[in-house]
Design brief:
Distance between the termini: 93 Å
Largest sheet: none
Number of helices: 5
Shape: elongated
Number of strands: 0
Length: about 140
């Protein structure tokens, strides 16, 4: 008897994927309308539309939860990826290729702090032995 009740309860808490997929486009439409306010040249600058994107994210999460689905889930992620492709496909991450400086500069940058540290230690020790000049 108890097992049957638990099984029925589990079915009622199941994710309604079709409802979620029906509701998510409204979030996308709202985001699209808000993004019209932003110059398309600034679409790659997150600071220009962070509030709109936050609203979009909260909307997708809310709709997924209403459909008793966890968020994010593969279907919601697919929808969000579609929005990303629509608005941010031209935003490439320009990776900076860092190179070590030439050896002469690198050695100088390492030796200067080492030498200054040694000089300061020597000065402190010398001054501590010559207490007569401090008085």
């Amino acid at each position: 008897m108890m097992l049957g009740f638990a099984g029925a309860r589990q079915q009622t808490n199941r994710c309604n994927e079709s409802l979620m997929l029906e509701k998510l486009p409204a979030c996308g439409k709202s985001f699209e309308e808000l993004m019209k306010k932003v110059d398309s040249k600034k679409w790659c600058n997150l600071t220009e539309f962070i509030m709109y994107y936050d609203n979009f994210t909260q909307c997708t999460e809310r709709e997924a939860n209403k459909a008793r689905c966890f968020w994010p889930n593969p279907l919601a992620e697919g929808f969000i990826t579609g929005i990303h492709k629509q608005f941010f496909s031209n935003c490439t991450s320009e990776k900076v290729h860092w190179e070590d400086p030439p050896d002469e500069i690198l050695i100088t940058l390492i030796l200067i702090p080492v030498m200054l540290t040694c000089a300061m230690i020597t000065l402190v020790v010398w001054c501590s032995k010559r207490s007569d000049i401090l008085v």
